[in-house]
Known about the structure:
Blueprint: H1 7-20, H2 25-36, H3 43-53, H4 58-65, H5 78-90, H6 96-103
Amino acid sequence: MATSNDPLIKQRSVIEFLAAEGYSAANIHARMKTVYGEMCISNCAVRKWVRIFKGKDFRETILRERKCLGRPLSTSVTAHREKVDCMIRANRRVKQKEIASAVGILKG
Length: 108
């Protein structure tokens, strides 16, 4: 689990802040290298995070623009919830496949 002293989390925060101020990825990496030294993340990682924070990461735009097709994969039937809850309480190591077949829903 990451703590508040995790250097990677701190460095991502610095990248987010400097990217919001308009600094280039190369400039951000150079500034971070002087502060963090050997603990600094790579130039490639800085460029990736700058793209993500500026909203120019193609994976992010594809996920935002993709429309959901079909019905949702979740179910809200109270009886299903109660049955799944009882199965989990009886056996904490029960598998999704077993739950799905017992309740009569899809594994996904």
